[in-house]
């Protein structure tokens, strides 16, 4: 029988050896040089963890901790809550050799030890967001060579090194959102050939080194929102055959030209965009809250299915701007300073399912506008200056007849003459009367109604200006506070 000589598996021996070394070395180290509260501590994790949730674990920066008397097999997931852990314990992955998912978010994590991920070859997901990490040292992830998902959002990272993420060859998802990154080294993502999802939102990036994504051919989702880009070059992604998402929201870009072979969704909210050009195929555009006074220029408009132009000062759309958007399913024109819609505007939108024209100053339309909208299921038109007679007609001859969903109004009753199915409207002849006494309901607004709509719009514009100013003042105060 050979059994006798294999009583203990190798990992057990290695484990014991490490433990022994630690026990022998640490008292020496403590005696010789540890300056502060450094100490050897036994934190039996079994006492702190229940069903994979560990609570109230305290580990200081200089503590050397032993987590268990022997390795704990088959523990696949661990989540730490209500804990303060300055560094991941040195023996974490020796103690839990089967660990696949480690959540140590919001634990005041400050630093990494070297080597930190030795033996972590089963680790697939690592969540270290909402901590106090300042640096990702070179080669720190050596050992975690099967890591798939790494979250480092909301830490205090200012820089990264070329080799911060080396060894992470299997990484698919990386979040570095809400740090203080100003620039990135050219080689930082080069080892991650399988990267799919990269989140860099909420940093201070102003640009990228040319070619930084040239090794990440499978990159499909890139979030660059809330950075400090003033120009953006889609050339960076010229090697990626198809992308699912690019988010540029909150960067002040003014003018933007994109050229992708295929991009599923571009989100560019609040970029103060005045001009946008998109070459290549893009399916969905979310351009909410920009300064567009003209339609985006998209040669391949035929491939656009969703277009959100809400909160842009487009005004009355002239010259058949949607004629090439023949595949549109969803169109949002909410709060775009529209007063009138031309009769043939939606002639080519035979597929359209959702149309939002709420928050404008429209008082009446040609009902034939809807002739082509055969597929419409959702039509939002609240918060306009509707004429009550026209609104009745719209409801009975189109909205209710076709069983189309709509949304009720929130306008205060004091300002409103009447409601039709919950939507505010005004009478033309006499703005004080609650009931229209049937004076013919002509096609032009009475002076009173025009006056009312002018006043309403002035109030709207005024509050917008005040809001903007207020934001500016608030920012200045904040800056002054920082300087003090
Ligand atoms: C963590 O702390 C919160 C708030 O004190 C408490 O409600 C929660 O039960 C704690 N969780 C665990 C697992 O101890
Ligand atoms: C982090 O934990 C603290 C208390 O330990 C809690 O007040 C805070 O809400 C948590 N933050 C996040 C982002 O979980
Ligand atoms: C980082 O890596 C890139 C290539 O991936 C190389 O060109 C560059 O010189 C490296 N920079 C440093 C500081 O090592
Ligand atoms: C990219 O994705 C495709 C399809 O999922 C896969 O076949 C290919 O191996 C991936 N390439 C790399 C470098 O991971
Ligand atoms: C868009 O990019 C492709 C491939 O990189 C290039 O061939 C094409 O000329 C570009 N189009 C424009 C209008 O710049
Ligand atoms: C709209 O975008 C501007 C930047 O152009 C931003 O300052 C503002 O906060 C955004 N407003 C909303 C409601 O998102
Ligand atoms: C773009 O639209 C054309 C015309 O409808 C269609 O033939 C093509 O397949 C579309 N391409 C993509 C990638 O959606
Ligand atoms: C259209 O845009 C407005 C303002 O951005 C938004 O509140 C509304 O929910 C959008 N409509 C739909 C149907 O998504």
UniProtKB/TrEMBL annotation:
Keyword Repeat: yes
PROSITE patterns associated with the record: LRR
Leader sequence residues: 1-31
InterPro entries with a match to the protein in the record: Leu-rich_rpt (IPR001611), Leu-rich_rpt_typical-subtyp (IPR003591), LRR_dom_sf (IPR032675), SLRP (IPR050333)
Keywords: Leucine-rich repeat, Repeat, Signal
Pfam family membership, one: LRR_8
UniProt-listed PANTHER family: AGAP008170-PA, INSULIN-LIKE GROWTH FACTOR-BINDING PROTEIN COMPLEX ACID LABILE SUBUNIT
Protein name: Leucine-rich repeat-containing protein 15
Species name: Drosophila lebanonensis (Fruit fly)
Lineage of producing organism: Eukaryota, Metazoa, Ecdysozoa, Arthropoda, Hexapoda
Gene: LOC115625537
């Amino acid at each position: 029988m050979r059994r006798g000589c294999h009583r203990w598996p190798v990992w057990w021996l290695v484990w014991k050896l490490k433990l022994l070394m630690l026990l022998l070395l640490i008292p020496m180290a403590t005696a010789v040089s540890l300056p502060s509260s450094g100490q050897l501590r036994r934190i039996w994790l079994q006492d702190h963890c229940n069903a994979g949730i560990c609570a109230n674990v305290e580990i200081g920066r200089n503590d050397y901790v032993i987590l268990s008397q022997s390795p704990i097999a088959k523990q696949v997931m661990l989540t730490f809550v209500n804990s303060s852990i300055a560094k991941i314990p040195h023996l974490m992955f020796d103690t839990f050799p089967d660990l696949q998912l480690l959540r140590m978010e919001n634990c005041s994590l400050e630093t990494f030890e070297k080597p930190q991920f030795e033996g972590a070859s089963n680790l697939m997901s690592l969540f270290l967001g909402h901590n106090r990490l300042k640096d990702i040292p070179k080669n720190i992830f050596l050992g975690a060579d099967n890591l798939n998902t790494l979250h480092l959002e909301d830490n205090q990272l200012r820089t990264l090194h070329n080799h911060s993420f080396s060894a992470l060859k299997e990484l698919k998802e990386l979040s570095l959102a809400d740090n203080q990154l100003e620039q990135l080294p050219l080689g930082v993502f080069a080892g991650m050939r399988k990267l799919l999802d990269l989140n860099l939102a909420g940093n201070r990036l102003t640009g990228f080194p040319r070619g930084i994504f040239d090794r990440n051919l499978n990159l499909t989702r890139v979030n660059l929102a809330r950075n400090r880009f003033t120009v953006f070059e889609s050339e960076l992604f010229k090697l990626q055959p198809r992308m699912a998402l690019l988010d540029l929201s909150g960067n002040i870009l003014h003018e933007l030209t994109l050229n992708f072979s295929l991009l599923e969704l571009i989100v560019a909210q609040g970029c103060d965009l005045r001009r946008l050009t998109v070459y290549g195929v893009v399916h969905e555009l979310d351009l909410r809250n920009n300064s567009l006074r003209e339609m985006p220029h998209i040669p391949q408009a035929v491939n656009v299915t969703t277009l959100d132009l809400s909160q842009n000062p487009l005004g009355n759309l002239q010259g058949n701007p949607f004629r090439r958007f023949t595949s549109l399913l969803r169109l949002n024109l909410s709060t775009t300073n529209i007063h009138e819609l031309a009769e043939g505007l939606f002639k080519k939108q035979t597929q359209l399912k959702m149309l939002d024209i709420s928050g404008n100053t429209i008082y009446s339309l040609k009902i034939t506008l809807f002739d082509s909208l055969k597929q419409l299921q959702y039509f939002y038109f609240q918060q306009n200056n509707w004429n009550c007679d026209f609104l009745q007609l719209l409801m009975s001859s189109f909205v209710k007849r076709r069983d189309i969903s709509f949304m009720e109004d929130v306008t205060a009753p004091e300002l409103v003459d009447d409601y039709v199915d919950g939507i505010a409207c005004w009478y033309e002849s006499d703005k004080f009367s609650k009931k229209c006494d049937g004076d013919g309901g002509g096609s032009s607004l009475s002076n009173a109604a025009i006056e009312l709509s002018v006043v309403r719009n002035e109030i709207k514009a005024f509050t917008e200006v005040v809001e903007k100013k207020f934001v500016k003042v608030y920012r200045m105060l904040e800056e002054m506070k920082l300087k003090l």
